[in-house]
Each structure stands twice: as structure tokens, then as C-alpha cells.
Amino acid sequence: MNILVSFLPWIIFWVLSGKGQLKIAAATSIVAVVILAIKDFKKHSVKILAPTLTVSFKFRHFILSEPA
């Protein structure tokens, strides 16, 4: 997989969170990770990075959704 595509969820998160959209950044990154994982699963080459990123972004989304 292209290295840029591998970092796409992080790039999305950095860009959106830099604009103050933390909840949207985490949710969009989760969607990107799931799409990439499905793509890898169809190729039979799922790597540990996909589930790890999913958990990481889901945790961020949960933490950022809590009321202050």
C-alpha cells in the first residue's frame, strides 16, 4: 500500500483538528480507517495497523465527545 494512503487517516485527523473540528476529525478518521481495512481485507493483507488505528480514533472520538 502506498505510504501516503497508509497515513491518510492521520492526515485527515491533523487537518480537521487543526481547524478546531476535533469530533468531526476523529469520526472522519474512523471512517477512513475502516475503508482502508476493508480494502486490505479484500486483498487478504490486513495488517495490525488498521485495527489499532480504529481503536485509537474511536477512543479519541469518545474522549472528545464527553461534555466539558
Question: How would you describe this protein?
Answer:
The longest helix has 21 residues, at 22-42. The mean pLDDT is 76. The chain has 68 residues and is mainly alpha-helical. The protein has four helices and no strands. The chain has one domain (3-65). The protein starts with a helix and ends with a helix.
**What fraction of residues sit in β-strands?**
under 5%
Please tell me how large the radius of gyration is: 12 Å
What would the principal axes of the Cα set say about the shape? Answer: globular
- Tell how many strands the DSSP assignment holds: 0
Percentage of residues assigned to helices: over 70%
Q: How many helices?
A: 4
**Low-pLDDT stretches:** none
N- to C-terminal distance: 39 Å
In round numbers, the mean pLDDT is 76
The computed structural class is mainly alpha
Main sheet: strands, sense, barrel: none
**How many structural domains can be distinguished in the coordinates?**
1
The helix/strand order is HHHH
Quickly list its features:
single chain; about 70 residues; mainly alpha; 4 helices; about 80% helix; about 0% strand; globular
Give a brief rundown of this model.
It is built from four helices and no strands. The chain has 68 residues and is an all-alpha fold.
Topology record:
Elements: H1 3-6, H2 8-18, H3 22-42, H4 49-65
